[in-house]
Amino acid sequence: MREIDVADVTRAIAELAMDACYNLGDDVLAFFEAALEREESEAGRDVFRQLIQNAEIARREAMPLCQDTGLAVVFLEAGQDVHFTGGSLEEAVDEGVRRGYTEGYLRKSAVVAPFAERTNTGDNTPAILHTRIVPGDRVKITVVPKGGGAENMSALAMLKPAQGRQAIVDFVVDVVSKAGPNACPPMVAGVGIGGSFERVAFLAKKSLLRQIGSVNPVPRLAELEDELEALCNDLGIGPQGLGGRITVMDVFVEEAPAHIAGMPVAVNIQCHSARHKEVTL
Fold this sequence. Notes:
Layout lengths: L1 E4 H17 L3 H13 L3 H20 L9 E9 L2 E4 L3 H15 L7 E2 L6 E2 L7 E7 L4 E8 L1 H4 L3 E5 L4 H16 L7 E9 L1 H11 L11 H15 L14 E11 L4 E8 L6 E4 L1
Parallel strand pairs: 1-3, 2-6, 9-10
Antiparallel strand pairs: 2-7, 4-5, 7-12, 8-11, 9-11
Helix pairs in contact: 1-4, 2-3, 6-8
């Protein structure tokens, strides 16, 4: 049994929150640079030039890539041979978010009583925490600052099995079409298929952790991703909604078994600031 003090979890999450908000992933930057050659619209190419410059300034000055530093979504995979010491794991996660967003001067966007007084919690807690027990004696932590604009354009549908694959395609493309400029394209479309009402939304969000340009190991899902990407880019929304060839950077699909009577589908939209950082303790 390996012991890990929850204080180490707190420190890791604080650092990851700041790192994710300051430093855009190399996969996203590589996409922006390649898009300068692919994008047909001059306005779109200018957007990509500005996104690259913005990322360079944020990295150099240790400033947020976007003023919306999002709600803190934390994926935590804990090895079953790990024993946490020093206090509550969930409280340690929230303390990490609190420190990261305070010390990093990141905007606090969490409010209580969503349809009433909507009072800001003041420290961006509580975190949206997803935990999973896995084999081993390591702890993998991924922090995803999830902005509100793209999140607001996400959607879920409880489709009928008889509607088949085409209904999934139509739903995903319709969600991206309705998102339009509101999701700050070029966007990433995370798609969950199957499971249950709550499981399918989790699958859609989890899919956003994949690297831009990665290929799904399941051939039929890889084929579906390619088809969805092509159809979404054919919408002509373009970078920042100014028109052009590139509306989505990628489409990722995660799948799970479902009830015989259902075919849930969820689309979680991510903006061009596709931020997530991870560490293993």
